[in-house]
Structures are given as C-alpha cells and as structure tokens.
Write a structure and sequence with these properties.
By secondary structure, the chain is mainly alpha-helical. The chain has helices spanning 2-82, 87-168, 173-185, 210-218; strands at residues 192-195, 231-234. It binds zinc ion.
Length: 240
C-alpha cells in the first residue's frame, strides 16, 4: 500500500501538469485574440484619422472652388459698375457686391479653419501611426510566442500522459479507481492531500488527530480527510 500512495503523489503532480496544459489550451487562443484586437484597434484609430484627413482635404478643395466662383462673380459685378446708367441700378449692383464679398469672406474663413484642422489632423495621424507601430512591436512577439506554445500543447500533453502511464501501471486498480474518482469530483483536480509534521490536511488545513496522523504515516490503508474528502498521504519529502 505505501508504495501505491507514493505513486499517487507522483500521479497527482503529473495530473496537475496536464490540467495546466489543458487550461492553457483554452486560454492561449483567447489571449491571442485579445492581443490581435489591441493591434487592430490601434490600426483602426490610425485609419479613422486618415479618413478624416481625406475628408478635410476634399472639403478644403470645395471651399476653394466656391471662393474662386465667388471671386469671379464679384469681378463681373465690379465690371458692371462702370457701365451703369442710373443710381437705382448702381445701388442694386453695389448691394450685390456687398453680399458677394460677405460670401467670399465666409468661404475663405471656412477654408482657413479647415486648413488648421488639417494640420492638427496630420499631427494626430503621425501620433496614431506611432501608437500602431509600437503596439505591433510590443504585442506581435507575444502573439508569436503564444502561437508557438499552442502548436506544441498537444505534444506536451502526450508526453506527460506517457509519463503518467508509466507511473499508473504500478498502482493497484482499487487505489487507482479511488484516486481517479476523487480527482474528477474536485474542482482543483487535487485528490491527494500531503500531511507533514504540521498535522493538518494539506488541502483544507483541518487539524488531524495524532492517532490519525500515525495511521497516515504508516500508510497501510487509504485514509480520506473527513472534511474535504482528499486522500491523506504522508509527505515523505517533509520527513518522518
Ligand atoms: Zn481536508
């Protein structure tokens, strides 16, 4: 029996390693997706700034065209002033000119404001591109590293399982069944509780009676913790 129990301690350690790999198998792809999302977010921010700049440029062009047209009609109106006969006509054209001047000033003002926005946008674009480049430089190696690990997980698990098979064939069938059934019920996957001089359950830390501890130390039968149901096994590494 005592040998069975020693093997169980090793099995426990192996099974916890398998669990660790299995949880990595679930979590690494999520971590990769998360990192990729951060890079994509930085790229999208840069692209949005780029789009805004393109829109500003076309708005500036439109304001420019409008100003050119206004300047042209203003010139025509001013030319007309020289050939005017009546005061009434003069007043009308003069009024027209004033209105055209106001529209021109407004178009030119809008163009100036848009140009200032464009300059600010260019600075924002440089900044956003820098953030994107930094995100790629920082996160891409992490993604590559996780991908490499994901690619190896199955073979790592297979290696650990081969190790497990070598150990488990030494354990008697009833002990193995008890171990497996407890392990599967435990959320932590921990079926074995190592007990040492502290005389407490290594899983739930319940204080164990001295007599029970002596029995655990003898290791002649399977003893379960009354509180948490773990298999109480004397920790040989901690000494007798
Ligand atoms: Zn316990």
């Amino acid at each position: 029996m005592i040998q069975d129990l020693e093997y169980l301690v090793k099995l426990q350690e192996i099974d916890l390693r398998v669990r660790e790999q299995e949880s990595a198998k679930e979590q690494y792809p999520m971590a990769v997706a998360d990192l990729e999302k951060r890079i994509e977010g930085a790229r999208e921010t840069g692209a949005a700034v780029g789009d805004r700049l393109a829109k500003l440029a076309s708005e500036i062009e439109a304001a420019d065209e409008q100003a050119a047209k206004l300047r042209e009609s203003l010139n025509k109106s001013q030319e007309r002033l020289s050939s005017i006969q009546t005061n009434r006509e003069y007043d009308a054209v003069h009024k027209e000119i004033e209105a055209q001047k106001a529209l021109l000033a407004s178009a030119e003002g809008r163009k100036t404001a848009l140009e200032s926005d464009l300059e600010k946008g260019k600075t924002a674009l440089v900044e956003a591109e820098k953030v994107y480049e930094n995100a790629k430089a920082e996160l891409q190696p992490q993604i590559d590293d996780l991908r490499a690990k994901i690619g190896k997980i199955d073979s790592v698990i297979a290696e650990i399982m081969a190790e497990r098979a070598k150990i488990s064939c030494n354990v008697s069938l009833p002990t193995m069944r008890t171990y497996d059934s407890i392990r599967k019920k435990k959320k932590s996957g921990r079926a074995v509780s190592l007990v040492n001089q502290d005389k407490t359950c290594g899983v739930c830390f319940m204080i164990l009676q001295p007599q029970l501890c002596s029995e655990i130390r003898r290791g002649t039968k399977i003893i379960l913790c009354e509180n948490c149901g773990s298999m109480l096994i004397w920790d040989e590494a901690a000494g007798r």
